[in-house]
Amino acid sequence: MTSDAAAQADIGVIGLAVMGENLILNMASRGFTVAAFNRTVSKVTAFTGGRAVGRTIVGAGSLEDLVALLKPPRRVMLMVKAGAAVDEFITLLTPLLAPGDIIIDGGNSHPADSTRRTRALAEQGLLFIGTGVSGGEEGALTGPSIMPGGNVQAWPAVQPIFQAIAAKVDGGAPCCEWVGPEGAGHFVKMVHNGIEYADMQMIAESYQLLRAAGLSAPEAGAVFARWNEGELHSYLIEITADILSKVDDVTGQPLVDVILDAAGQKGTGKWTSVAALDAGSPAATITEAVYARAMSALKAERVAASAVLSGPAFAAPADREAFVEQVRQALYASKIAAYAQGFQLLHLSAQDAGWTLDYGQIAQMWRGGCIIRAAFLDRIKDAYDAQPALANLLIAPYFRDAVHGAQGAWRETVAAAVRGGVPVPAFSSALAYFDAYRSAALPANLLQAQRDYFGAHTYERTDRPRGEFFHTNWTGRGGNTASTTYTA
């Protein structure tokens, strides 16, 4: 260890890939001195001799050097691949740190890993923060959305840095606040990514319907640009308009028309779907967006199937402009339903984990910097500020009225897609979610009867208080013994 005089850096960052480099540059631009380290030390040399020249950035040739450069309490941020690499660096760092020092994981880690790391490091006297960082390369450099959780004792030491580098909205409010304990920060980031999957799929379905209705890619791009001026104003709508106007340098065609229709994914959408299943939280639109990517990946199978499976052709609408407006309303209503699912998952999972989450604050953090940033999120913040215990966004006055106003067009859009053989899994599942949530009665009474019939799983009665369970000997041969467990 070196003397305190050598300790000049406010924070150390490990990992010089796209996000790590740009976060370091962002921190330096806000007046912080940053120590940079990468396992491949040549990357440190290239960075300090390139983009970092003239900035308050110092390179470290080893972890020992990095730690020696840091002012106490030492703050070390990991921007490495989620999973084993994070644990490996934590193992290497812990002997070099002192009680009260802070390790920050800024990758897309699974929330359960952040909970485990928070607890394990606390036993060693070290503080851990698992933080979601959203915004991609541009956001990391100019201002991302940052969602920290973990050991709250660490927050005062990192708050000035995180809030300085975060995106700002509404006159300077940072898109960064403390989320909650243990894995809460990474959980909120995971749900953000699940909503992102749904948002992107719904935009893709809108695009497919516009193309089926006869619009060219540039014409569809102009439609998205127009939509971006209204209630759908968002980063994803904005970039969709840009994408659809781009011409391929090789073929002269719209670039989107020469991009293969096979989507990739990194797993956070799947994690959100699994978390929803674990919590018993209906998030079908998010899950359908994950499945849509999986279906797209079966490109060779789909091409082969298209030669042997037939269906209807989409009929061009008689009034194209009216159809375009119909799709816009369907997109907005579906978006509301998808966000309702995401916030419902946050609410139910927080209850299970014993977390207290501020949903209006979460909407504020997503208002700028992140991929799903949108004017729409102001409405969500307003809804939760007015009703902190709001059960579902669909019943907040603004969203209730918006969906009621759009549902005719929403239904017509889904019906037109079904009649024309255009798959719209996100639109249709969002509509089904809305219809199910507004239904006082669902056919689950028959499901419970079936479960009791074949497995003696019992049921509740409409004429008796909730929590009382009954079993019927349906065949006369089963006796009166019921299952000892009941899961609603």
Characterise the protein shown here.
The protein is of the alpha/beta class and 488 residues long. The N terminus is likely disordered. Strands 3-2-1-4-5-6-7-10 form an 8-stranded mixed β-sheet, sandwiched between helices. A two-stranded antiparallel sheet has the order 8-9. It starts with 10 loop residues before the first strand and ends in a 33-residue tail after the last helix. Helix content is 52%, strand content 8%. The protein has 19 helices and 10 strands. The chain is globular.
Short description:
By secondary structure, this protein is of the alpha/beta class. The chain has helices at 18-29, 41-48, 63-68, 84-93, 111-123, 136-142, 155-165, 184-212, 217-227, 235-245, 268-279, 284-297, 299-306, 320-353, 359-365, 376-386, 397-420, 425-437, 444-455; strands at 11-14, 34-37, 57-59, 75-78, 102-105, 127-134, 145-150, 168-169, 173-174, 180-181.
Task: Based on the model shown, name its key terms.
8-stranded mixed β-sheet, two-stranded antiparallel ribbon, 8% strand, globular, disordered N terminus
- How many DSSP H or I helices? 19
Query: What are the secondary-structure elements, in order, as H or E?
Result: EHEHEHEHEHEHEHEEEHHHHHHHHHHHH
Largest beta sheet, briefly?
8 strands, mixed
The shape is globular
Beta content: 5-15%
Strands of the widest sheet, in order across it, are 3-2-1-4-5-6-7-10
**Structural class category:** alpha/beta
Mean pLDDT: 95
Share in helix: 40-55%
The value of Rg in angstroms is: 26 Å
Calculate the terminal CA-CA distance, rounded to whole Å: 58 Å
Count of extended strands: 10
Uncertain segments of ≥5 residues (pLDDT<50)?
A: 1-5
